[in-house]
Amino acid sequence: MTIPIFQAAETDNLDEVKKLLEAGTDIYTANFDGETLLHMAAKCNSMNVLNYLIEQKMDLEAKTEGYEDTPLQIATQEGQSEAFYALIKSGADINTENIEGETPVFTAIRFKRPEFLEYLLQNGADGNHKNKAGETPFTIAVQFKSTSLTKPLLDIHVDQKVNGVSQEEIKKLMSMPMSSRASTTQTPEVLSSEVVSARNKNSRGYDDPITLLFEYCITNNFKELEKNIEGVNVNKTFFDNETLLHAAVENNAYECVNMLLDYGANINAQTKTFLEPPLHMAILNNNHEIIDLLISSGADLELQNAEGESAIFIAVRTGNVELVKTLISKSVNINIFNHDSLTPIFAAISLHQPVIAKLLLQAGATASLGRSNCFSHAMEMGEQDICEAIRESDPSLARAAMNTSNLDLAPPPQQLFNYIRQKNIGGIRKILSNRYNLNLEQPDGLPLIRSIETGNFEVVKAIVNAGADVECSSGKELPLFVAARMGNEKIVEYLLQNGADPRTINEDNENALFPAVRSNNVHVVQLLILQECGLDHVNNAGMTPLYNAVGLRSLPIVEALLAAGADPNNQGHSPFKLAQDLKMTEIINALVSAGAKAQIKRAPRRTRQQASILALSQPMRLKTPLKPEHGKCSICGTKKHMLKLIPCGHAVVCRECLEKFVEKRSQCPICSMGFYATSAFN
């Protein structure tokens, strides 16, 4: 279902956009791809809308969900020159990075936009920037073997080193005449066999037959695809692990899709970044013919993408009622969790899809599953019909939601959590221009905790600046603990600067140094050491930070703690004994150098008279109490799916009973050693 204001932006209907904004539509409304109105205007070259949004000071650096593209990168991909130049002249960052660490320069090369590439470089874009794979723009341009893409880079004297390509090959490429540059706005040409033949002879850009097949799939030139497909590996991948089938589906090339399936294309191949299979792409394109073809050809309906979402989620997000019905008839899992612990019915409520929500409920969707109360969420979204449907299917859920509501407080809207997950700074600031109680725990948790979990410093900063309490806790999860657990030095330092107390103790009797040690990040550990948060503090399991560091076999952290004065002979479990058990020679030496002593316990001596008095005054006990059997669950008695405790290594609990075991014990029932983790027992 298209959002009305997006439809207006797509058609450059500025009057309608203004009308909807005046009626209360949020200017930072995002679609299911995380695209803002500015992204849509840039994509469609809707210049009236785009210029208006720029005048309204809309965030030029807002990023989409998944690929994290800015409006400038979208305009570059689509070849929309007016939008491209307008965004740059308005101050868009020409060196901004997407999820792959690639700037607009990379985008211009990958989408063959030589004019854009020249303009970016002439205006100061970094020509030697490296993406997350360590590749430079020149590395990518050489792979395309196009002089129109390599020459602008050479003109600014970029580094010409390319792994796997000799300087002689690069010189040959540079000696070739500049290839003609197609208009950035023209539609892709359909290549005839004569054109292909000529290009094969005169251009190094078409040496690889798979390159031709990709172009045929993109343009739906199934006749040429049929002529050239014999003997070619149709499952070879290109950028982002896309296959020919992905290209054909993405470009609605039905005939090519059909042919590729006949030639053995992997129907469930997934892309690298978003883990998208062809079926998900077809659903997003709303191409019913290709959807039906893929489903009838055996596409996996339960395959999950990088967000943990299967086909039913994608169908819900696109508002495809008929497809939802089809998938329900195929008995797909309608209660599947995505990586945010949310279900399809929660997505339907979020997107104001009452028809789909009711279909899911009628098919047996459980509204009480997941991290959030669906009834509360439906109330927040103003979906009274869905509330009524949930009330009929699960009255207890509705009662629980009503009992926990507090009308005296003003919690932040759900959209804030969506923007936090999307790392949409502009959207967050827009919402926080109004005052909300950011310290009230919501179904999605605390805004500050969720912000820290994104790892994005600017998001955390925006939430703290809006009034979030850096000491506000969610259970045993304190903001500083979460940042320390994630090993995020910058956020830890910021929280400390804003008043987070490193000596605060959680319900496990641990300070922030414990999760910092477990993050295995020595820099975060050193940062907290400087705060004097308690080097020798002992938690409920009898462990110190030093003991944890030894258990993790982390020599750098052990050395950092000892250098700061941690006592290797402190009360609690012995780090020295653990290091001996783990046979970690370097750690043993470090502990000995710091004064660690082997702990030898002797039974106290008693006289014969004392022993006889003790025997008469105390009941007889077994000298050695019965202990659980190693390799057998101490709760249910099974020997299947066993887990061993770390660090002692005793296997006394199975995977199914782990939660009960942890509730009852903090020490191993065999050796009484405290444990802090488990691993599979072979």
UniProtKB/TrEMBL annotation:
Pfam family, one: Ank_2
Keyword Cell membrane: no
Name of the protein in question: Ankyrin repeat protein, putative
Gene Ontology terms for molecular function: zinc ion binding
Bias (Polar residues) ranges: 177-190
Phylogenetic lineage: Eukaryota, Metamonada, Parabasalia, Trichomonadida, Trichomonadidae
ANK repeat extents: 33-65, 67-99, 100-132, 240-272, 278-306, 307-339, 475-507, 541-573
Stretch list, region Disordered: 175-194
InterPro entries, A to Z: Ankyrin_rpt, Ankyrin_rpt-contain_sf, Znf_RING, Znf_RING/FYVE/PHD
Annotated SUPFAM superfamilies: Ankyrin repeat, RING/U-box
Keywords noted in UniProt: ANK repeat, Metal-binding, Repeat, Zinc, Zinc-finger
Domain of life: Eukaryota
Start and end residues of each RING-type domain: 633-672
Species annotation: Trichomonas vaginalis (strain ATCC PRA-98 / G3)
